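pinging the channel bc i need a second pair of eyes. not urgent but kinda urgent?? the chain im working w is below, pasted from the shared doc
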Amino acid sequence: MAKLTQDELLAQFEEMTLIELSEFVKAFEEKFDVTAAAAAPVMMAGGAAGGAAAEAEEEKDEFDVILTGAGDKKIQVIKVVRELTSLGLKEAKDLVDGAPKPVLEKVAKDAAEKAAESLKGAGASVEVK
């Protein structure tokens, strides 16, 4: 297998959804026994801020999952937020405490629906835009 350059790797990451990128980060952490909690939100924000933002407005095939309230089972909601993202405990708790806030941005419709169902199952109130 040929070694990929940094630009080629970044091009691959740009094509990934947030869910796919989150799964990659988890696999990377397990494989190399490291924690990328601080770097992952920056990577996600950087990838989403590119040219895809302008395209998303036109296509309507990307959705945002917004947490509007934690409900009675706040701890369960924090656990689900951590599963859906690569946020650490403090970051996930801050997101839940600061609701309404987006949990996932610019994801496919099916991924957004699954995430919303998981959050609702934990007792949270969620909005998909």
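so Residues 18 and 107 are 6 Å apart (CA to CA). and The radius of gyration is 15 Å. — does that match what u expected or am i reading it wrong
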